[in-house]
Amino acid sequence: MTAMQERYAAYADLALDVGLSLQAGQRLWLSTPVSAAPLARAIVAAAYRRGARYVEMNWTDDGVTLARFEHAPRDSFAEYPVWHSEAMLAGAHGGDAFLSVRGTDPQLLKDQDPELVTTVQRTGATHRRQFLTYITSHKVNWCVLSVPIPAWAQQVFPGVSEDAAMAQLWEAIGGACRLNDPDPVAAWNTHLAELARRGAALTDAAYGALHFVGPGTDLTVGLVPGHRWIGGSSTTDSGITFTPNVPTEEVFSLPHKDRVDGTVTASKPLNYGGTLIEGLKVRFVAGRAVEVTADAGQSVMQGLIDTDEGSARLGEVALVPASSPISTSGVLFYDTLFDENAASHIAIGKAYSECLQGGHDRSAEELAAAGVNDSLTHVDFMIGGAQMDVAGVRTDGSTEPVMEQGEWVQ
Ligand code: ZN
Ligand code: ZN
User: Would the pTM count as exceeding 0.85?
Assistant: First the structure.
């Protein structure tokens, strides 16, 4: 095997064994950029070797996406391949596994009409709504990871040749995903155990709220009573333990949809569907984002927040130390999958019901009554950094430090 083939094989093993935990007899839905076809082939082969019944291949391509924005009729952007979302829903219902390998130009849509961008996002979210419920309640094993493509690599490593940028991005991903470790699966098992321990300690603390203080941020995030902190792996109802995001450095839980107050300033740019949102500031009152400003991408961010009632409220709060390997690498990936693991973050939109004890068994009405947010969207943005303090607020109003200057206190 060439060095590249070895890298693809190692990444395929990581995706299927640590990420998805693909089981013999499962069908696999695989989504990969066309330009990463060699990696896709390695994953497909590895999946069949593990006993996959069938791999359903879905190719993605930035050029195809862009051609639509440039040339399709302006009134056609609410078109959607309904057959595809219905087939995925049927697959989820039947216990299939879902692996999404992403690779996209972070600035692909920067010159396109924000209203059309919003329409496409909203249309997709509407049609995938039921499927997203399978994902957020972890009824299926799923995993998202990223693969370098030239336009992305050159955004992350500007000023060098395409080949050099691609090599550097693969190296950075290798570091972030522990692929450069002699035994990546063993390194992951140690890491996942540490995240689980951290999550359990925060669950036991049962804070009523977290208070974030840092540059441009003074934010209190109320937590839903009975919340759990989750980190690393999740387990499906059928007992498959999988790691939905590779890499992952976070422990995350459940903000109360009506109890978020104060101002927060994003600490890194956010790439949302081909638009870079920079210098984002949001003010919350009683859970609702009432004021949103950004130096770039403001109208796309506002459009996202205006999607529905829940998209103006929080669905996730996550803690990541400033010393996480992705953070210390100093690389800004312009990809939330990586950047959210370099900093504590919050997400607007749909909450993960598994963050509530017994959440899986509760109806939508019961979850809402408990303070669990619902929305068509779920979009993370980074707020943490080496100057962020986080205090846990107990239900009696007393506080204790959880993070100081971006690091765990204990
Ligand atoms: Zn997160
Ligand atoms: Zn999230």
Answer: yes
